[in-house]
Amino acid sequence: MLTLTNLSVSYDGSRILRGVNLTVPERSLVCLMGRNGVGKTTTLKSIVGLVRGESGTLTLDGKPIGHLKPDQRARLGIGYVPQGRDIFPHLTVWENLNLSLVVHGTRGGGHLDRVLELFPVLKEMLQRKGGVLSGGQQQQLAIARAILTDPKILVLDEPTEGIQPNIIDLIGETLLKIKKEGRISILLVEQYLDFCLEVGDSFYIMDRGAIVAEGPIAHLNDEIVKEHLTV
Ligand SMILES: Nc1ncnc2c1ncn2[C@@H]1O[C@H](COP(=O)(O)OP(=O)(O)OP(=O)(O)O)[C@@H](O)[C@H]1O
Ligand SMILES: [Mg+2]
After folding, report:
1. Which portions of the chain are predicted below pLDDT 70?
2. Strand, helix or coil for residue 155
3. What is the pLDDT of residue 84?
4. Is 52 part of a structural domain of the chain?
5. In this structure, are residues 106 and 66 in contact, taking their beta carbons and an 8 Å threshold?
6. Which of 41, 144, 151, 210 is the most exposed place for a label (fewest CB within 10 A)?
7. What element of type H or E holds 165?
8. Is there a domain that residue 96 lies in?
9. Does 121 reside within a domain?
10. What is the atom index within ligand 1 of the atom nearest the CA of 206?
11. Residue 137 burial (10 A CB sphere; 0-12, 13-18, 19+)
12. What is the pLDDT of residue 108?
């Protein structure tokens, strides 16, 4: 449903992405992996429209969307959870969630109930300021907020970064639940290998701005890990 073809991106004249090809099929969870600084976040930013590609094509459900602005892409169904979470610290949890509903004009009630079911901890904290939540709770809030925009595809940038193991498990279970419901596909940038093995259907590995390995997650063997992921 989401396809990137031959995407290249430069920052200040230096080439960051070199002809990236990537597909996220319907009802699947795709992991994009790679060491620090290889271009994972830049790939996601190109997908959500925060970075302009120099060349290449981006399609959603077969329609080109590369010329659209970020808000237009969001309305077509691309939900984004940026690296470092990016919630509003001075707004309450409820306000953070509600803002998402207002901005995207999604019908409130049902969606909010469903999201609070996925993330029960947020239900207990609706009146708390986002900024006082733990890192793991903020990550859940950021994911919840993205789901409230009713996306077809959810794009997540390192949701496990700096988060304690029990919350990582919980986030993994939630992603699997979302995927199983069948309405949202997921593109996950992740450096935590075990997490990808647990939740992913397929993988792509990036190195210096290019895809250097890809396949079903079961094909992600020690050799590939050693060559492209181990630091
Ligand atoms: N706004 C920018 N201007 C110039 N260079 C940038 C900019 N953003 C990123 N870069 C450079 O582009 C390269 C890829 O960065 P990117 O953030 O996409 O990597 P990443 O794979 O997400 O890394 P990490 O694992 O650390 O999050 C890096 O060399 C980075 O320094
Ligand atoms: Mg990054």
Report:
1. 105-110
2. strand
3. 85
4. yes
5. no
6. 210
7. helix 165-181
8. no
9. no
10. 21
11. buried
12. 52
Residue 6: its pLDDT value, please? Answer: 96
Asked if the structure places residue 120 within a domain, the reply is: no
Phi-psi region of 84 (alpha: psi -120 to 50; beta: other; left: phi over 0): left
pLDDT for 152: 94
**Calpha distance 17→74 (Å, rounded):** 23
Ligand 1 pocket mutation pick from 4, 9, 40 by most atoms within 8 angstroms of CB? 40
Closest alpha carbon to 22 in 31, 14, 34, 13: 31
Query: What residue's CA is closest to ligand 1, atom 28?
Result: 37
CATH of the domain at 84: 3.40.50.300
DSSP 68: S
pLDDT at 168: 94
pLDDT of residue 13: 87
**First and final C-alpha spacing in the chain:** 33
CB 55 within 8 A of CB 96: no
How many distinct structural domains can be found in the chain?
Answer: 1
What pLDDT is stored for residue 99 in this prediction? 87
Pocket of ligand 1 (CB under 6 A): 11-12, 16, 34, 36-42, 83
Record the tokens describing residue 45, joined without a space: 């930013």
Which helix H or strand E contains 45, and what residues bound it?
A: helix 40-48
Amino acid, res. 29: L
